[in-house]
Structure prediction request, 166 residues.
Amino acid sequence: MTLAVGGGLVVAGAVVALVYSAMSSVEDSIALPPRSEAPYSEPYEEDPYEEPYEEDPAEAAPEPTATEPDVKKDVTITACTRDPQIGWQSAKVKVVNGSSTTASYTITIEFLDKDGVTVAEGGAGVVALEPGKSAVRKAQGLGEVPRGTTCRISDIWRTPSDRSEN
Prediction:
């Protein structure tokens, strides 16, 4: 019995010595590198401010002609609903091409809480809508919104398009 206890103590001592030796070698391997001998340098000075490039007014995009109706008149919200299952808002928009050429539309809708704060956004698009023709699209908001959320058109882009491009 004494021999077993003595042998156990020898084994335990050997394990402690082994662990101590391993910890010592790990400590040496994770030691921080010596401090750099490089001298301290001041931060860079920024380049002087340059005036922004100004466009030549003659090269600016042409203004819409007076014969073209305002693009805001081309798009109306026909429905603004909140999905009762997931709480996401959507809007149905009707687009009527009031221009004299085939056009594509990109519409951005804002979803506003009762205080008028934007809580979500959605978008819809119509490609190559002929003059006088109409299309109905759904602008789906992303994310849950509170009950009573309303819809508002935030941006509309109308660009001339050629049906042959499709």
User: Anything to note?
Assistant: The first helix runs from residue 2 to 29. The CA atoms of residues 120 and 128 lie 28 Å apart. DSSP finds one helix and six strands in the chain. Residues 55-68 have pLDDT under 50 and may be disordered.
